[in-house]
Amino acid sequence: MKTLIIGEVTNNELNSGTLEIISKVRELNLEYEVVTVGSSDVSKIGSDEFTNTYFKMNPNKLNLSSCANEINKLIVESNYELILSNSTYICRDLIAFLSVDFKTSPVSNVTNFKISDNNLTVMNNINGGESEYKTTVNSDYKFLLIRPKSFELEDIVLNENFQSNNINDDETSLDVFDVIIEEKTGPQLEDSKIVISAGRGMVESSNLSLIEELANKLNAAIGGTRAIVDAGWMPYSQQVGQTGKTVKPDVYIACGISGATQHQVGMKDSKYIIAINKDEEAPIFQISDLGIVGDTLTVIPKLIDNL
Ligand SMILES: Cc1cc2nc3c(=O)[nH]c(=O)nc-3n(C[C@H](O)[C@H](O)[C@H](O)COP(=O)(O)OP(=O)(O)OC[C@H]3O[C@@H](n4cnc5c(N)ncnc54)[C@H](O)[C@@H]3O)c2cc1C
Questions:
Q1: Ligand 1 mean position, distance from CA 241 (Å)
Q2: CA–CA separation, 104 vs 101, rounded Å?
Q3: Strand partners, 145
Q4: Which domains does the chain carry?
Q5: For the whole model, what pTM was predicted?
Q6: Which distant-in-sequence residues (6+ apart) come within 8 Å of 252 by Cβ?
Q7: Is the CB of 279 inside a 6 Å radius of any atom of ligand 1?
Q8: pLDDT by residue (tens digit) across 128-184?
Q9: Could you read off the pLDDT of 31-44 as tens digits, one per residue?
């Protein structure tokens, strides 16, 4: 099945979601090409192993409609049947344009897919991860939006072997008048081997200093539930879950987190899950490898002292 991967370049790099999709497509031995979109000055986003066309957007404009038109042409000219995309905001918008153009329904939040005898079967999560759907996609053009961290990342050697096209503005382009880039320090949620997340069971925001202390000892990234993000204890960029980030570390430590499905969907594929909660009936224990029934404010200091 001839495949086109739509990916994104952020901060001069191919983002990890794009690389995960490339890894999966290579595992399935599909014939594929990559198109990436972005507004960075990129260097190593191509490879000798795949063709990458970079659609460079004007950083002062949001011109997704013209970008979708270019990708549309590529799909028709090269006769791609399967179009796989990252679930970033930009790529979701692009797929919205393209699926209307091709009068087909995209499948979103895809966690896996397989092809046998040229038939495509897709698994996707809906209802905040409460239900998993298995569907066969029979349309001529098959658009899938892949959930981050769904596939194992292989080593992919990148170089400057790619073709770059500038995207022109059109009457639908929106002006970007300000860009605020969040400063990042310390281990990042998306790629840290250990993630420590806090929930309402940390009782009050000042107790997050315990999480920071533990994270420093373990060189871990810090996440949180939507409840504490909404309460202003932590920025949204650290939210784990359905409406936040998906993480898949080797170790995930959930501190005072009930384990609502909307939270689980962003962390349940972590390799080893440790939960600390004073309620032994808390749903987080159902997916934990190690459960500690106790008060976070007593257990975490003991952990810190013993590390
Ligand atoms: C559309 C939608 C999208 C959502 N997206 C997300 C998302 O992306 N991420 C997300 O996290 N949530 C999301 N939610 C919210 C989600 O449903 C839960 O409300 C949220 O995850 C709960 O956060 P929490 O576990 O911190 O709080 P709670 O559910 O209040 O749980 C707190 C836990 O702490 C325990 N506890 C209390 N005190 C202590 C103590 N001293 N020591 C030990 N344990 C203690 C309690 O027993 C309890 O289990 C979403 C909801 C909706 C409707």
A1: 10
A2: 8
A3: 85
A4: 3-175 (3.40.50.620), 194-306 (3.40.50.1220)
A5: 0.84
A6: 194, 195, 196, 197, 267, 270, 272, 273, 274
A7: yes
A8: 777 889 999 999 999 999 999 899 999 999 999 999 999 988 888 899 989 888 787
A9: 999 999 998 889 99
